[in-house]
Amino acid sequence: MGGPTGRMWSLRELEALREHYPGHGPKWAGWAEVLPGRTEGAIGLKASRLGIDCRRGVWLENMSRGIGEAGEMRERWSVAEDLAVMRAVRQAQIDTGRSGRAIVARARLLMERHEKGDI
After folding, report:
1. By C-alpha distance, which of 37, 35, 36 is closest to 18?
2. d(Cα 116, Cα 28) in Å, to the nearest integer?
3. Which residue pairs, CB below 8 angstroms and at least 24 apart, start in 96-103?
């Protein structure tokens, strides 16, 4: 969910990452001021997961979420949508006492069972 401290990325941090990462990459000295408490590793990993490419200065299409089941192109997830999903998983962690991975795996299983008509 978050960096080494376990804290989630705020909307402000994600917007700063999107704005500055393409031109500077993870080793920019300005990150300490822009994203205090975030390490180079955490910044690079988050940018990679969001599909930000510093080499070409563009957002890449994340193929795992950019192509629909029937092969049609889907819109990229917005930062607000990413935050909504992260908040929902965090709330489920609080409600159930289970890990984020366990919650996502269970949700995937339930969706598969629902699609098959088992539940």
Report:
1. 35
2. 49
3. 100/1
